[in-house]
From TrEMBL:
Keywords: Signal. It comes from Steinernema hermaphroditum. The keyword Plastid does not apply. InterPro entries: Ig_E-set (IPR014756), ML_dom (IPR003172). Residues 29-170 form the MD-2-related lipid-recognition domain. PROSITE patterns: PROKAR_LIPOPROTEIN. Pfam families: E1_DerP2_DerF2 (PF02221). The lineage of its organism: Eukaryota, Metazoa, Ecdysozoa, Nematoda, Chromadorea. This is MD-2-related lipid-recognition domain-containing protein. The keyword Aminoacyl-tRNA synthetase does not apply. It comes from the Eukaryota.
């Protein structure tokens, strides 16, 4: 419970003030690449419902599914770890991204178990990645609803090198 109260206090401190949506996130998902192994790239990123139809705003109170067109001309990746970082857009006078403390709950996850179908083959094609937020509903529900969030989704190989890193900014529902 101490964890919950610590989170609640820091979230309350973060939730005042800002109501604009940066980078057009009021109406569209915004993303860019924040790192990749040689030969790995992504050409399209779209949050989707379980049936594959586009989802916007995204829902953080459920597992988030993102359809990605991936090109992997590097090698077969059979083991990948996943780090997820979440920021909220806030501030009293000037808006900025503030990292939400997740106390390691979203670090060093087994991506093959929680997020992707492994091995990640070579070649190009659509894949769907899952961000396993439903497990963290107790934290997510404390977050401001219908607000801008920034997410970092970072896959690392067995040597700790970044295989692919995606940054996304999105309008999100938390309830
Ligand atoms: C808007 O997106 C760009 C990348 O496309 C990023 O560099 C910039 O920091 C973003 N602006 C804000 C306010 O987050």
């Amino acid at each position: 419970m101490a964890l919950r109260y610590a989170l609640l206090a820091s979230l309350l401190a973060l939730s005042l003030g800002c109501d604009s949506f940066p980078n057009g996130t009021d109406h569209a998902f915004h993303w860019w690449s924040c790192g990749a192994a040689d030969g790995v790239s992504v050409s399209a990123v779209q949050p989707v419902n379980p049936d594959g139809s586009p989802q916007y705003p995204v829902r953080l109170d459920q597992d988030l599914h993102i359809a990605v067109d991936l090109i992997n001309n590097n090698r077969i990746f059979s083991k990948l770890s996943l780090d997820v970082t979440v920021w909220t857009w806030s501030g009293l006078f000037k808006c900025g991204w503030k990292q939400i403390p997740t106390f390691g709950l979203l670090e060093d996850l087994d991506a093959c178990d929680m997020s992707l179908t492994c091995p990640l083959k070579t070649g190009s094609g659509p894949i769907t990645v899952k961000l396993p937020f439903s497990k963290y509903g107790i934290i997510i529900r404390l977050l401001k609803n219908n607000a801008p969030y920034q997410l970092k989704y970072e896959l690392s190989d067995e040597n700790g090198n970044v295989a692919y890193c995606l940054m996304a900014q999105t309008r999100a529902l938390t309830k």
